[in-house]
Amino acid sequence: MPLSQDQQAEIEAQRATPRPTLRAVSEGMERHLYHAYPVLDHGFVRVIDYMGDDAAICQAARVSYGKGTRSVQNDEGLIRYLMRHWHSTPFEMCEIKLHVKLPVFVARQWIRHRTANVNEYSARYSILDREFYIPAPDQLAAQSALNNQGRGAALSEAEAARVLDILKSDAARCYDHYQEMISDDGKQGLARELARMNLPTSIYTQWYWKVDLHNLFHFLRLRADSHAQYEIRVYAKAIARVVADWVPLAFAAFEDYRMGGVTLSAQALDCVRRMLKGEEVTAETSGMSAREWREFEEVVAG
Amino acid sequence: MPLSQDQQAEIEAQRATPRPTLRAVSEGMERHLYHAYPVLDHGFVRVIDYMGDDAAICQAARVSYGKGTRSVQNDEGLIRYLMRHWHSTPFEMCEIKLHVKLPVFVARQWIRHRTANVNEYSARYSILDREFYIPAPDQLAAQSALNNQGRGAALSEAEAARVLDILKSDAARCYDHYQEMISDDGKQGLARELARMNLPTSIYTQWYWKVDLHNLFHFLRLRADSHAQYEIRVYAKAIARVVADWVPLAFAAFEDYRMGGVTLSAQALDCVRRMLKGEEVTAETSGMSAREWREFEEVVAG
Amino acid sequence: MPLSQDQQAEIEAQRATPRPTLRAVSEGMERHLYHAYPVLDHGFVRVIDYMGDDAAICQAARVSYGKGTRSVQNDEGLIRYLMRHWHSTPFEMCEIKLHVKLPVFVARQWIRHRTANVNEYSARYSILDREFYIPAPDQLAAQSALNNQGRGAALSEAEAARVLDILKSDAARCYDHYQEMISDDGKQGLARELARMNLPTSIYTQWYWKVDLHNLFHFLRLRADSHAQYEIRVYAKAIARVVADWVPLAFAAFEDYRMGGVTLSAQALDCVRRMLKGEEVTAETSGMSAREWREFEEVVAG
Amino acid sequence: MPLSQDQQAEIEAQRATPRPTLRAVSEGMERHLYHAYPVLDHGFVRVIDYMGDDAAICQAARVSYGKGTRSVQNDEGLIRYLMRHWHSTPFEMCEIKLHVKLPVFVARQWIRHRTANVNEYSARYSILDREFYIPAPDQLAAQSALNNQGRGAALSEAEAARVLDILKSDAARCYDHYQEMISDDGKQGLARELARMNLPTSIYTQWYWKVDLHNLFHFLRLRADSHAQYEIRVYAKAIARVVADWVPLAFAAFEDYRMGGVTLSAQALDCVRRMLKGEEVTAETSGMSAREWREFEEVVAG
Q1: 3-state SS string for chain D
Q2: pLDDT tens column, D217-232
Q3: What is the chain C residue with the closest CA to D215?
Q4: Does any CB of chain A come closer than 8 Å to the CB of residue C300?
């Protein structure tokens, strides 16, 4: 269970007392505030704060004095236009702050998104909890034969059991030793900043992460994508569900123009045009490499 | 008068309807929301939105589950510690969004602060208003003899009158011609994106500007400083007054450790130490250049 | 003429003395170094320095010990793969530093690209030259009737002549007054930081601009595009010509996957698939807005 | 030994063939290029490329046409002025690219410096080497009693031996299991992206890291500081030695105004002034907290 009773009580207390504000309020987002949505076996995502809503995107795009909304229909058209034509700055006018609990190896991928603000739990200052990510058996897969950085078929039951046994026992032993090294019970006790290096990257850390909506969309496009590693993808998807309620018009545009769209190269575009004119285009006449042609065939077949 | 009745009415409407939120609320900031504080002759600064408060800084620094406040005293001590030791990330967890109206030559300095989000009024798309910054007579000063990029003594009354006359008449003529060029009354009318180039940089533009508190403090340190050009300094000071009510603990720490503090070089620190031991230190024995010594003397004299 | 004899002599001196280096050298780029390529009537672009080449992109992508080149063919395949799959970090490992002279209204668009380093000529410290952008007559166009932020048909000869006359005479008068205000000949002379505000944004400024290749490609994609204002597009195109010689493999991939490619929305992709299956798709059955359908038709027709 | 014979041969090959360039060349830096300077037990830092030198900083600050050097003395004065007055943009005009091998827990601190470009060795794609950081015995210290995030006294010999034994045996066992899990010898083999999570953060990774000189100075100020964790401080110091030869004037200014300097708060400055006037100032009359006063006493005593 990711949250203690004390933690749960603190969260409840925050949810219990609405206060008046003059700022833009997203009703859809208020319902999510502070809730810890579980991800993986011990992780979670919870929204701490947000700034702006769909109307705020339009207000900034128009540099207007009032709320910026003439009508929802106008706002929708403007937002779709902005998304379609890569006008990113109005989306930067919305901001979200999340509290995330996640395995260290996921945190290492996540932090590569640099245009964001982060405060991470300090293992120099504090003691890490005994919580490690142990994959569900159906997530244990072999190295992909096609893609050098992905997963292929699920492991056999016996092999999966053997792997889980290793992951659990190594994590337990490393954590026992971590505790033993830092313990000052009858001895000096190793500095935390050193002892932590004995812990595997399956251990959970947590951080506050704040990002604007444009950069969040970029994160979601890369990390909610099927090529992303499963363990970060589930975080991206949990965040996406919240964003859909926060800024429904912007999120729909994002889905239509980014997540659900494709980019065609000059060669691919040329092939589409020729095919629409009735020409039979083959790998040989496409001007693409074998790999590109294979990717292209998947795109047009759907 | 910077705001039309329509604009004023839009602002009043936004201020009239508080709504409930579960987010952190800064009472001090709510009072400022949407008010347009006049700056220079036609400019203003107004807060459109904000995220976080003093407690949110501490909450992020502690990566805590609840509000992060144990007591105001604890929060104050933590905030001062963070500021003193350059732990900037917790301050990045607060965000502010401003609507600013400002002359173009001021906007050109302002935009150099890159870690911020901006939506500017588009002169390709829209027609600029006939509003130019004309300095108050007491702001008309000669080039500084000491500092190559500053102002010296005030101009004589006659010279100031002559300058004002030039600024006003050139601005008026350029704007008349701008209107004439874009007018399609009986002719084609020049594209706005071209016609705008005839306008002097004293013309007012406006933008939405969003920035986190850490980067805002950096902006204020450089632009509220006495070396900054007067015309941007007055904007920085107007913003500083609002920030003081938004995050009073963080702002007090900023004043003590940044605005009111000084940085001593290795040589200057060495001189202070020697002087405190009773040694008579002179420009010659200081190890500093003449200019550095002069700056140092001002610092220690106060 | 944009360069004085002194300036030309300085440039020649720099070009005259090659020195040995162990760093990656791009032969194609060495030929461009320091040359000032004219843009518009008084502007230019010249390369001051660069870091890396095509091989350096591959070397970084492989985090390898040596030069990173197994063969040019391997490098080409890797570079195209990286570009196709939005792996942007290896392209960030190349850097370019330019010296650019450009009108202020162009500089104001350019500076919106924030992930770059800039040093601009200071009009607080120095006196600006009497050089203004005056468009060639064939560039004087009316406001577009279709696109709110673009140009339409060329102005009639009479109207163009009238506009040029305004632009020239207003610029000349404003500059005369600028000089008069700052002159300390028999008077105090206004501070430069104030006098400059009388100058129209057609005046030329100059800066050093340094950017990594990934962000430069992003700049080129937006600014070399046909929707960009002509006056910045010509700078983007001048830079693109240099980049093509600097990193020929990366530039070719950029042309194929970015400049020459298109992004299809979910709806557009669905329409393409249906059309390839022989279905007759119309604006009504497309699921797109009228405007999107028009844009889509242009894309598939070519 | 961190480098294999093949890797050493690749490095030698790169060092063997200087090529002519017209770019700015730093003789001091050329001597360092590609050399792998050892850090910790298996790590290293080596310079892959650089852009600019001291003269380039001045050239950019002056936005000049030629090399920017009038004389070394002028350059030195200008560089010191820029550093003293926080004019950071000219320092951004120099760039360095490093190849670094470092333990994962150090990489996790390092990556928090966001204004840099990074390509890290991918453990999704490749297999990590069996190399772990095992501290030298004199680096094994207890948690500090004074500072919650630092080290105190060295561990006793017996305790140190016990800790080393744990670190070595846990790392060895985890790596054995990592190899066993990914092995496809007679079985499927777990995907690398999953198996890696079993490895402790003492394992070495490597990356290419590119940063401008201003941001590198910021990194060095924080990470070469005595409060930084020893394991990152040694990397910062190795880099500092190289930078001192690359841009000697800028580095000397950095040492005088940043590393060797101090920042005094408003209260501390007031105390210095009173003390210089002969007043006896105590903790009680200082206006500082007990902790600040202790820090202040250390600063003025030296």
Answers
A1: CCCCHHHHHHHHHHHHCCEEECCCCCHHHHCCCCCCEEECCCEEEEEEEEECCHHHHHHHHHCCCCCCCCCHHHHHHHHHHHHHCCCCHHHHHCEEEEEEEEEHHHHHHHCCCCCCEEEECCCCCCCCCCCECCCCHHHCEEECCCCCCCEEEECCHHHHHHHHHHHHHHHHHHHHHHHHHHCCCCCCCECHHHHHHHCECCEEEEEEEEEEHHHHHHHHHHHCCCCCCHHHHHHHHHHHHHHHHHCHHHHHHHHHHHHCCEEECHHHHHHHHHHHCCCCCCCCCCCCCHHHHHHHHHHHHC
A2: 999 999 999 989 999 9
A3: C117
A4: yes
